[in-house]
């Protein structure tokens, strides 16, 4: 029994990673002044940030059409018996529900959907784990059970450099954005009950990153081994330097570097940094 693994573009797996693990990707889109682009297909992360910097209109994001899922699942039915489709949190996008609907519309293949309740690199960790287990011959039930087990230790925090993006995207009131800007507040965000919520407000970015590190340190003490990913919004050098510092301090944590692409970057803004981790299974 062959199991296909599908995720969406907000997992921000590189083309090399998708090829290595045989993960199929369905893209979300970002709408800019000069047109709509499928992220990871028609526009790169760096191209997106360059374009947005010179635009007056705030970008908008679009989930994949249900028909796109149906098309992909029908194609996969030629070679696979089952699909495990892993998507960004249903609390911030209708992408997961689109996969559920499409799964009910196809014949010849059974679609199992997984709400990651998160996004970006942590979402990608679920997809990679599922792909590894599928390659090793695990059943759908074993894979889905492992993904749920991962969810119990999955955590992620994001430090936003500029509150303007959250405010313009409807994630923050104008008054809160103004006050935050005057006080140089750097909010730490996290996922709670499938939604992006404020965790703490810190006066400087340096202190905010230190606070996120404290949260990682707590988990590193509780678990023998962790997987962690530093995520950057078009500030790779800063992200890589932070990852290097963390790796020196936490030898039981396996670190990697990822990025906020166009869809998530629309709401977080350039120069944001994130850190996600999970117990290594």
TrEMBL record:
Keyword entries, A-Z: Coiled coil, Lipid-binding
GO molecular function: lipid binding
A Pfam family matched in the record: DegV
Domain of life: Bacteria
The keyword Coiled coil appears for this protein: yes
InterPro entries: DegV (IPR003797), DegV_C (IPR043168), DegV_domain_contain (IPR050270)
SUPFAM superfamilies the UniProt entry points to: DAK1/DegV-like
Coiled-coil ranges (or none): 202-229
PANTHER family: DEGV DOMAIN-CONTAINING PROTEIN DR_1986-RELATED, FATTY ACID-BINDING PROTEIN TM_1468
Protein name as annotated: DegV family protein with EDD domain
High-level lineage: Bacteria, Bacillati, Bacillota, Bacilli, Bacillales
């Amino acid at each position: 029994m062959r199991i296909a693994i599908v995720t969406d573009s907000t997992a921000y797996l590189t083309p090399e990673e998708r090829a290595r693990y045989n993960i199929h990707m369905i893209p979300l889109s970002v709408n800019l002044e000069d047109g709509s682009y499928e992220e990871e297909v028609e526009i790169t992360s760096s191209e997106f940030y360059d374009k947005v910097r010179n635009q007056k209109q705030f970008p908008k994001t679009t989930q994949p059409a249900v028909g796109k899922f149906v098309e992909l699942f029908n194609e996969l039915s030629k070679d696979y018996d089952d699909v495990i489709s892993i998507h960004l949190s249903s609390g911030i996008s209708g992408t997961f529900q689109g996969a559920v609907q499409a799964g009910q519309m196809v014949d010849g293949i059974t679609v199992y959907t997984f709400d990651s309740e998160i996004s970006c690199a942590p979402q990608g960790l679920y997809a990679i784990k599922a792909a590894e287990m599928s390659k090793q011959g695990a059943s759908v039930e074993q894979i889905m059970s492992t993904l749920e087990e991962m969810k119990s230790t999955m955590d992620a925090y994001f430090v936003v450099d500029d509150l303007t993006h959250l405010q313009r995207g409807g994630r923050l009131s104008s008054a809160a954005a103004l006050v935050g800007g005057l006080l140089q507040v750097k909010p730490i965000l996290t996922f709670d009950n499938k939604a992006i919520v404020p965790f703490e407000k810190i006066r400087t970015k340096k202190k905010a990153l230190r606070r996120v590190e404290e949260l990682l340190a707590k988990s590193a003490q509780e678990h023998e081994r962790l997987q962690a990913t530093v995520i950057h919004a078009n500030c790779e050098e800063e992200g890589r330097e932070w990852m290097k510092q963390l790796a020196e301090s936490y030898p039981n944590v396996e670190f990697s570097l990822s990025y906020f692409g166009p869809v998530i970057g629309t709401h977080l803004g350039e120069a944001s940094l994130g850190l996600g981790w999970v117990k290594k299974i």
